Amino acid sequence: LELESALYKAIGRQQLILHYQPKIDIHTNAMVGVEALMRWDRGSDGGLVPPGEFIPLAEETGLIITLSEWALGEAARQAAVWRDQFGFDGAVAVNMPSRMFLRQDLAQLIDKTLEPYGIPSHMLVLEITESSLMQDLERILPILQNLNDRGVQISVDDFGTGYSSLQYLTELPISELKVDRSFVENMAVKPKAVEVINLIVSLARSLNLRVVAEGVETLPQASLLRSLDCNIMQGYLFSRPLPGDKLAEWAMTHL
Ligand code: G
Ligand code: G
Ligand code: NA
């Protein structure tokens, strides 16, 4: 309960921040975008709270709606700063819980959020986990359609761990599949993990989707993923999630 009320106050106290992890084109090595990841620093009241703790709490209490709205605005603000700083025009991915996709006003909310910063909707990627997408698919689908009509891109996160209906997958207005980190982690030791990634890549090819491999930590993983024809990589091999100003430094020295 203490943590819940502290989280409630965290936005106003400016204790929430976004860190950003680069998404790297596997062939050109260019940074094609970033994923925003939320951090909560309680300062002298207890320091960093791991997202694995406060995100589930936010989901249970419904605070995730407020946090997600804040994250959309904050990511747009940061993208505009980078645009002016170093000409950033990549994609900004924000993690969205399924609850946000149940809102009839999501597309309008996004327009209203991006507009003041002059960030076009096609620069925004919303990441939703495969499991939460599939759970509420019937209700989420019209909202996805609406977002897609406005150019907002949808990425299916932790792909391969949920139970996607292949039938549905062909009908979804999505742009990207993110191979779950566990497959990348297991590539070296479990041949089956490589087969799963191979399958996801073929599936993505036939549906015209990008494939992102997350959790890439080593060069051998990167070269294997390249040979499997993934499009984009993300992971500690390139960079940890960084505060906005540090990400700018990173991007300017890696471009
Ligand atoms: O950020 P890692 O750095 O530890 O994040 C842990 C988990 O928290 C991940 O599964 C990630 O998807 C989730 N997460 C991180 N930031 C956000 C966010 O802004 N919104 C939502 N819904 N989940 C997030
Ligand atoms: O599922 P999602 O993409 O939201 O997960 C992001 C989570 O993965 C965050 O917790 C982030 O800090 C973490 N992460 C990012 N890169 C790596 C990596 O190379 N290795 C590991 N183990 N975790 C990573
Ligand atoms: Na994600």
TrEMBL record:
GO terms for biological process: phosphorelay signal transduction system. Signal peptide: none annotated. Keywords: Kinase, Phosphoprotein, Transferase. Residues 1-255 form the EAL domain. The keyword Ion transport does not apply. One of its GO terms (molecular function) is kinase activity. This is Histidine kinase. The chain holds residues 473 to 727 of 754 of the full protein.
